[in-house]
């Protein structure tokens, strides 16, 4: 069995640049690449990459957000077409490629996705645990408040009137004794 492929940081650095042409929802420049860099990295003719880009079956909205036709000057000083693309555009394009470099990218992309999924699951378990603790704390506090409310009702309806009646009765019994002692 062959050794697993690794889409290295060095390989990523050959492909990625920061462009002011594409901005995310926070209006920050996004990482981009060009069709020339893609052709070089995946060992393809640039014209084949351009054809693959023109033949992509993506929506017009996706295309506008992720691909920009521009030009570069070739070695003979002539302007030639080239595309700049966002990470999403790049992934959309490369997922259709075949060959060792494309397989390397796809495996790395899947591994990164799995790692992200595992992280989210671990965060969700932590979040679920925190949620369960909060629910338990809420239920205990709610039960304590309900008990306190029931005790207040019991006190107000039964205990307080009985205690007040008992105090009043004892007061009535004590008053004659107090007056008799004062009079003596």
From TrEMBL:
Pfam families recorded: Phage_pRha
Full protein name: Uncharacterized protein
Lineage: Bacteria, Pseudomonadati, Pseudomonadota, Gammaproteobacteria, Moraxellales
């Amino acid at each position: 069995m062959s050794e697993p492929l690794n889409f290295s940081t060095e390989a990523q650095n050959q492909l990625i640049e920061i462009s002011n042409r594409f901005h995310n929802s926070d209006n920050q420049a996004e990482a981009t690449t060009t069709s020339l860099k893609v052709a070089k990295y995946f060992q393809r003719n640039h014209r084949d990459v351009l054809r693959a880009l023109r033949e992509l079956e993506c929506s017009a909205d996706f295309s506008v957000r992720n691909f920009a036709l521009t030009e570069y000057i070739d070695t003979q000083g002539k302007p030639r077409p080239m595309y700049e693309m966002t990470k999403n555009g790049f992934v959309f394009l490369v997922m259709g490629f075949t060959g060792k470099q494309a397989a390397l990218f796809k495996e790395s992309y899947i591994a990164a996705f799995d790692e992200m999924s595992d992280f989210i699951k671990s965060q969700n378990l932590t979040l679920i645990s925190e949620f369960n603790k909060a629910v338990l704390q809420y239920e205990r506090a709610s039960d304590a408040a309900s008990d306190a409310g029931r005790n207040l009702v019991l006190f107000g309806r039964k205990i307080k009137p009985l205690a007040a009646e008992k105090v009043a009765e004892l007061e009535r019994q004590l008053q004659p004794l107090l007056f008799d002692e004062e009079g003596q």
